[in-house]
Amino acid sequence: MTGTDATSVMTALGERAKAAAAALRMANTKTKDSALRLAASVIRREMTEILSANAMDMKTAEENGIDAALLDRLMLNSDRIDAMAEGLEQVAALPDPIGAVDNLRYRPSGIQVGHMRVPLGVIGMIYESRPNVTADAAALCLKSGNAVILRGGSEAIHSNRAIAACLRRALVDSGLTQDAVQLIDSTDRAMVGALLKSESYVDVIIPRGGRSLIERVAAESRVPVIKHLDGICHVYIDAAADPAMALAIALNAKTHRYGVCNAMETLLIHQQAAAATLTPIVRAMLDKGVEVRGCERTQALCGDLQVGTATDEDWATEYLAPVLSVRIVDDLDAAIAHIEAYASGHTESIVTADYEAGQRFLREVDSASVMWNASTRFADGFEYGLGAEIGISTDRLHVRGPVGLEGLTTQKWIVLGHGEIRS
Amino acid sequence: MTGTDATSVMTALGERAKAAAAALRMANTKTKDSALRLAASVIRREMTEILSANAMDMKTAEENGIDAALLDRLMLNSDRIDAMAEGLEQVAALPDPIGAVDNLRYRPSGIQVGHMRVPLGVIGMIYESRPNVTADAAALCLKSGNAVILRGGSEAIHSNRAIAACLRRALVDSGLTQDAVQLIDSTDRAMVGALLKSESYVDVIIPRGGRSLIERVAAESRVPVIKHLDGICHVYIDAAADPAMALAIALNAKTHRYGVCNAMETLLIHQQAAAATLTPIVRAMLDKGVEVRGCERTQALCGDLQVGTATDEDWATEYLAPVLSVRIVDDLDAAIAHIEAYASGHTESIVTADYEAGQRFLREVDSASVMWNASTRFADGFEYGLGAEIGISTDRLHVRGPVGLEGLTTQKWIVLGHGEIRS
Predict the structure, then answer these.
(1) CB within 8 Å: B364 and A111
(2) Which residues in chain B have their CB less than 8 angstroms from residue A224's CB?
(3) Is residue B422 domain-resident?
(4) pLDDT tens-digit map of A154-176
(5) Same domain, A357 and A411
């Protein structure tokens, strides 16, 4: 497809999405929730069709020699399809954020001023191999009153088509417009470029995927982007940390799951806490099969334990793997300075019983999630009570950290008067 | 200056701003407020110096044949300088948004999750002729814990330099870093380009000025922008409007000030309200010297009154002048459809005593401010209780409508635990 062709396809998609967004903005909660529940039942009913579409994607992927991890992400089975349908029902059960009025108060002029929560408009969602994102993202966009244009991975095109068809059928049968959910029905990369330049139609782009996708989107997009870059997360064990709590949190943060963005990548230990915590933690990590790379002091204190050498590059790396870098620091200031220099702004946690140290850490560390005596693994939309999550933002504007329904909305000012004029 | 030179100047400014932002993030309320009050007194003390710098700008502007309106915006006198100092004191008196914790609540896992309000980081402010923006913008950025890089109009460079010098002196004397406020000390346009590409240092750009400035910024910027485009504001007089209230609001919205973004540009009247409201309003507008351009029905109903012909172009024009377009519409749906087609998303108001019509208008009109029985002129940071205003956003993300201190902040998640780990 040429760039011009892609632009004209995108314009048609964009115009339909804009019209759908205007209609969806006014849809009431009951209609949106019925559509979501109906979509769940259509997906369950069409399971065979979705599975056979997925089989085509799996066959092509295998023929192309795609690796096992990606194949697993691409693969659907009846359990996964059922989980997808359940996800739609869970979103239907969440409170509707739209129309909520906050903070309405009288002003000296006599007018009442407040905020009303409203949809963002049209959301462009760019994602990679997991076909369930098609249903998950569409559900969150629909519930929050937004139209969505979906662009999934080309390896999942048949699966995504089958899932999107179920969603669109449910929309129509619920009296909503099917254009509230549109899938870019082409694997041509030019379509991504066209989507990123459609600032007249699309209000925000949310990319979900690997670093190269996110960086391409951030570099090319004329539409505002809510992006999720690396999670180089830290746990800092303060002088006043309880050693048992420090061990439990460090282990959980590193070994609960390795390939996730909220896993710990670097452990910082106050020099006064090292005697009581360093070797038990390193031993436990090694027992779990985690490779440990330490600073000089770490290596010296670990004696015979197998600890490699951490370099500057280690401090700046998101391993997403059973590898941990460990650094002994002089004090809280040094820990915060290390975090300032190397963290990606995702999630950091302090373990301490010291009120002053905890308060300072909470206030001074500039990350999307800052924790005190808890595992970094809690940085998650479900754990935070958002009910669902469309992504995790490492940006600073609009929304930071886990993004749920509210992150897909904005607020307008409302003014209630009685004939007031300005003097 | 070449682009490369501009980039290296900008890099130096950006690095200093980033360091200043990290320090300012931790500054307490008392220190920030003292710095603001001290800045006010330095500005009053240095009045003679500021006036003579401004005289240089005025002389150059007059020699360049700059028009009277721009000369008036550029001109400082003792009253205006005093108002600038008072503005700094007013910002000092506002509550500090930074560090406020919202909505901290327990989750089933045992952790407490909430939001803490924090600064955005580094703000790039691009503005035109009014030198008081130098002080106003710096004050709001400082109070909200942000470092700012200011780029004023080249015609005001001497005035801006003198004002920025006062602010920086006050910062140092209050124990803060002077780099919290930096002025781009060059009138070279290449510096604007460099600022717009400094996404590694600057978190958001706020342009304030005419349409061509805003459009250039929006098109070129790699940094997120909070922008303020046109204010094509509407008043809609519903069938159930009180005629006296309709007249008062329409007159105020149009004639209170002409050159402001929250002035009404188009008046929509329900056909059933036209008999009681149209000619009194048109007569009052003409008496005030406002040119009226109407649709066919308006012209027919206005008889001998001097009403020109409104074209499609009129509906899409922000006059910023004593010109008003008037359209008779069939009903509320037609009014909302007209607004959907032509409004710029700034401010619209309905005049009605009908509960259902008012509720629908509030819910369905998609503008930054939506009003019921009040003049559009109230769309303003002071009138809304923000205490001050750095601009008015017609964007949808992050902040919409008048932008005060809170618009210059973001939130991070905080998690308070007791050793919780994820299972």
Answers:
(1) no
(2) 224, 395, 397
(3) no
(4) 999 999 999 999 999 999 999 99
(5) no
Q: Is B366–A105 a contact, with Cβ atoms under 8 angstroms apart? A: no
Probe site for chain A from B364, B415, B418 (most A CB atoms < 10 A) = B415
Per-residue tens of pLDDT for chain A, all 423 residues: 777 899 999 999 999 999 999 999 999 999 999 999 999 999 999 999 999 999 999 999 999 999 998 899 999 999 999 999 999 999 999 999 999 999 999 999 999 999 999 999 999 999 988 999 999 999 999 999 999 999 999 999 999 999 999 999 999 999 999 999 999 998 898 999 999 999 999 999 999 988 889 989 988 999 999 988 889 999 999 999 999 999 999 999 999 999 999 999 999 999 999 999 999 999 999 999 999 999 999 999 999 999 999 999 999 999 999 999 999 999 999 999 999 999 999 999 999 999 999 999 999 999 999 999 999 999 999 999 998 889 899 899 999 999 999 999 999 999 999 999 999
- pLDDT tens digit sequence for B328-370: 999 999 999 999 999 999 999 999 999 999 999 999 999 999 9
For residues B75 and B172, membership in a common domain is answered with yes
CA A204 to chain B, closest CA, distance in angstroms equals 8
From chain B, the residues in CB contact with A400 under 8 A are: 410-413
CB within 8 Å: A203 and B400: no
Which of A217, A396, A400, A423 would you mutate first to test chain B, the one with the most B CBs within 10 A? A396
Asked if the Cβ–Cβ distance from B374 to A419 is below 8 Å, we say yes
B107 and B172 assigned to the same domain: yes
Residues B274, B331, single domain; the answer is yes
pTM for the full model? 0.93
What does each C-alpha distance from B3 to A223, A380, B186, B205 come to in angstroms?
25, 43, 13, 19
| Structural domain boundaries enclosing B151 | 3-227+401-415
Same domain, B54 and B201: yes
**pLDDT value of position A229:** 83
Contact A377 B26 (CB under 8 A): no
Single-letter amino acid, residue B226: I
For residue A345, what is the domain's CATH number?
Answer: 3.40.309.10
CATH of the domain at A180: 3.40.605.10
On whether the CB atoms of residues B414 and B421 are closer than 8 A, the answer is no
Residue A393 lies inside a defined structural domain of this protein: no
Tens of pLDDT along A107-151?
Answer: 999 999 999 999 999 999 999 889 999 999 999 999 999 999 999
**A183 and A257 co-located in one domain:** no
Whether B300 maps to a domain, the answer reads: yes
* B131 and B153 assigned to the same domain: yes
Sign of the C-alpha dihedral computed for residues B402, B406, B412 and B415 taken in this order: negative
Using an 8 Å CB-CB cutoff, list chain B residues near A384: 107, 113, 413
A206 and A99 within one domain: yes
ipTM rounded to 2 decimals? 0.94
Q: For residue A266, tell me if it sits in a domain.
A: yes
- Token pair 């958001």 is found at B204
Structural domain total, chain B: 2
